[in-house]
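Hi,

Apologies if this is the wrong queue. I'm a grad student, and the batch job for FAD:protein FMN transferase from Sulfurovum lithotrophicum produced an output file that my downstream script rejects. I'm not sure whether the problem is my script or the file. Here is the sequence I used:
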Amino acid sequence: MGTYATITLPKNSNQEISKTFELIGEIEHSLSTYNHTAMLYQLNVTHKVPYDSYLAEALRLSKHYYKDTDGYFDVTIGSISKNLYHFGEEKPLSPDKKALKNAPLNINSIHIGQAFITTDKNITLDLGGIGKGYAVDKAAAYLSERNITGGIMALSGDIRCIGTCEIYLQSPFTEETFAKVTSKVPDLSVSTSGTYRRYATKKSEHHLIDPKTASQGKAFVSVSLFTRANNSRIDAYATAVSVMPKAKALQFLKEHNEIGYVLVEPDGNIIDGNLEGLIRLKYNKPA
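Support response: The file is valid. Your script probably expects a header line. Output copied below for reference.
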């Protein structure tokens, strides 16, 4: 999945930590577009791979969240993010407008059978908007089975608190943090998405691309979402909200009052809501 992972558990949990990293490695072997032996990488090359339970479940969830977000979360964005911009490769590119306009996206091009998973020949998938959250959910389920009741896991900006925890939100403009988050629930899920870390040849060409227009999201420079025990969902939703027009994003979040949010606009203005019952939020300085 091309990211870093951290796991902090109580003393005498070394075996659980090792097993959790092994599980994350297994999931990465299913969902990675970087590892040439990974199932998703092979699917993008050959368009047909043997059935893989992790890949199949992640793709089913992706189709569901495509509908939930009115198409703003679309894993077939790989036809743009991977084939044109080459995000995650040594030398990303700046595609021309014609190539972007003609890039094929079609969520119905994904076919999950009992024996094989296939895609249409012109489609490339990118699970970067859900893969980390999915892995966090699977790791949290394993630790729950092992009766682990305290700790924190993070795959880049996708975080699960086991028990209560404190985290800090990073400013999209500096290396400093701008807010302290204290969980009020024992199973807080957090997903943060931003325009400030990954871009092609210039910062305006960041990796959060609206699948409807093939252009970068402009309403927010940072999106942080919070809910209970569902990182897959808010990972996908954070990706979608990041590329929605502002009015659409706020309406979407209003309709999902089980999801808290902290949004940072390009001018530094902060919009938050739906936080009651999930977290205590303390701003320490402007974003």
